Amino acid sequence: MHKTETIWDDRNVPHIFAHTDVGLFYAFGWAQARNHGNLLLRLYGQSRGRAAEYWGDPYLASDRRMALFDIWQRALRWRNQQSGPFLACLEAFAAGINAYARECPEQISAEAALVLPVDAVDVLAHSHRIVNIEFLIDPEALARSAAGEGRQGGSNAWCIAGSRTTSGYPLLLINPHLPWADFFRCFEAHLQLEDLAVYGITLVGIPVLMMAFNGALGWAHTVNPHQGWRLYELSQSQGGYRFDGTIQSFDQTTKDILVTESNGSVRKETFDVRRSIHGPVVAEYSGRAFALRLAGLDRPGCLEQWWAMACARTLSEFESALARMQVPTFSVLYADSEGHILHVFNGQIPIDPEVVGLNDSLAGDTSRTLWTRTLDYENLPRVLDPSSGFLQNANDPPWTTTFPGGPNPGDYPRYVAPAGPMSLRAQKSAKLILESNLLSHEAVIRAKYTTRMELADRVLDELISATRSLGTLLARKAADVLESWDRCAEPESVGAVLFVRWVQATGFDSLFREPWDPARPLATPCGLADPAAAVIALDAAASAVVEIYGALDVSWGDVYQFGVHELRFPALGADKVGSFCELWFLDVGDHRSVAIGGDTYTAVVEFSTPPRAWVNLITGNATQVQFGAATAGIRDHLSKQLRPALLQRDEIECHATALIRLTPVFGPSGD
Predict the structure, then answer these.
(1) DSSP letter string, 544-581
(2) What confidence score (pLDDT) does residue 148 get?
(3) 8 A C-beta contact, residue 80 and residue 151
(4) Of 78, 388, 622, 651, which residue is the least packed, with the fewest Cβ within 10 Å?
(5) pLDDT at position 671, please?
């Protein structure tokens, strides 16, 4: 078998050169194990549903979750449903992981090594868990749905047609917002065959690139507000549940989980899984039982679809891959070298016979509410080559993807997506494009790092005016600070901490005088609903800031920071205030907050001949200690710059830090 070559550059990005698909996947598995081996094996152990057996009680809840959704058993079935050539690729990926562990055992912890060897079923189980469970649903989403609340998400993506760029070439912005740890950790790679070169990112343990570009085209994903699942409230009776006037028995099974104790002994935990015709019972609140019906459990080809998208050369080939409908969620924003731009509100969207609202549980006692089919590709909201010359999405419904020319919500059933509102970040996204007649790649990069808070522009002038007439002395001093503030979340921005504290004290949902209006989508919501209450909240926020930090004029970067081991850096970006550059923070207990997610990967791709791209992975590309702390990506973020993607062999070799040649050798088991 032909050897593969992998060149690692100075950002730990593997550039893999292979002669066959199987050789490429083998080297890709080897590369992921080299950069993230301990994390990858821990994630695979969890997807097996045996993490508590390997690592004890902290993983018991995870194992219960895997058993509840039948992840491992479904992966076993899905293995037999893969096409022969692609199954060989999955086996090769697993074999590459095993080979690295054999050749570099000192780099794999004893705890992680318990999972070895891995095989294609592990790859499928992990991917199934991430895509169908952790992205499509999550425990918090279920709880919010049961409570009638909306789901949160994050990402930005732009497609700019050549008619709106200074170069005349289309531009694509890929900018996912994700947590920075565990199964959401990203991996950047460059995969090359003799007739294909594709560059992009995936999640650790997933064997294909999920967002990427090749020489002809590229795509981004954003989490989209559709529900590929429905929660049904069951009417329990006589040990079963009512359905269409009769009492149905639950399908009940007992699951056993092995748990290793700290002293090395092993105990067995058992729990019952109850299933209705809708799906498993996933939540119980005050005697109320909720069952989950999940789309996509009959679609085993998600990974092969992503690979087909990466291999596509034309819009037609790309849409043929999308039309397989194996990826159960995510909007798709696409651009290509022929000048096309495309937005598809992708997903396996249940066709609901009856639906009250996307975030409401449905009555589970009647077949009238039970969906059995999902929308076909041709019925999804889709925009191709709009006259506006641009497409954008920041996790909003598809109706405002461009101006003019977005899909009309009245043309689609209301279960497809909410009618609104448009978030402040999405409004900022659209306004940044509309403010420029022509955009260069440099302008897109500058726009990407915009931290000006759209919320401040909607309410701050009124707040300052009201405070001048109604506020206490302290509140008026706070108004002075806010008046001088640049309305941004830059490290040196003075006033941003005070403003965010005021927003928290006021409550976002009750803040505005005018709600979002689809007739004025980029100017609403706006105004203060209750100026007097807003002034009282500013006084309280000012008191808290002075008490905690000793002064009102504290800088954003003094409070909101990046943390890498013992190092701290001031942060650039904010959350929930309409900053296009978005970060999510966790209070670390010393009156400081450390970024734990949000802005993760950025790529600006220009579809010239050949394409050019500029990229940054803020977390760095390795979690293994020997490859160093992830500070370079943070430093690039703080300097608002992207590095040129290394796409040509001579460029790659100039930045090379290591070269590995591999000969893939493995049997049918993947080992």
Answers:
(1) HHHHHHSSS--BHHHHEEEEETTEEEE---BSSSS-SS
(2) 38
(3) no
(4) 651
(5) 45
pLDDT recorded at residue 589: 85
In terms of Cα–Cα distance, which of 579, 599, 638 is closest to 179? 599
Residue 140, classified by CB atoms within 10 Å of its CB into exposed (0-12), middle (13-18) or buried (19+), is: exposed
Tokens 């009776």 belong to 237
C-alpha 633/C-alpha 434 separation (Å) is: 29
Which residue from 567, 573, 546 is spatially nearest to 491, judged by alpha carbons? 573
653 within 8 A of 8, measured Cβ to Cβ = no
Cα–Cα distance measured from residue 619 to residue 179, given in angstroms and rounded to the nearest whole number:
10
Q: In the chain, how long is the greatest CA-to-CA distance?
A: 80
pLDDT at 152: 47
Distance, first Cα to last Cα, the chain? 16
CB atoms within 10 A of CB 57: 13
* Measured distance CA(502)–CA(514) in Å, rounded: 19
Q: For position 668, what pLDDT does the model report?
A: 46
pLDDT in tens, 616-627: 999 999 999 776
Give me the count of residues in the chain. Answer: 671
Segment 269-283, tens digit of pLDDT: 999 999 999 999 998
pLDDT score, position 614 = 98
CB atoms within 10 A of CB 628: 11
Q: Radius of gyration of the chain from Cα atoms?
A: 26
Give CA–CA dist 309/346, Å, rounded.
Answer: 14
User: CB–CB of 458/440 below 8 Å?
Assistant: no
Do β-strands 593-599 and 583-587 pair in parallel, antiparallel, or remain unpaired? antiparallel
| DSSP letter, residue 408 | P
Element housing 85 (H / E): helix 84-103
Distance CA 79, CA 121 (A): 6
What CA–CA distances, in Å, run from 328 to 273, 304, 350, 549?
24, 13, 11, 46
| List of the chain residues with pLDDT < 50 | 144-152, 668-671
**Spatial distance between the Cα atoms of 172 and 222, rounded to a whole number of angstroms:** 13
Q: What's the rounded Cα separation, in Å, for the pair 47 and 133?
A: 11
Residue 393 token pair: 């999405």
Q: E-strand spans in 364-436?
A: 382-384, 390-393
Beta-sheet pairing, 240-243 with 526-528: unpaired
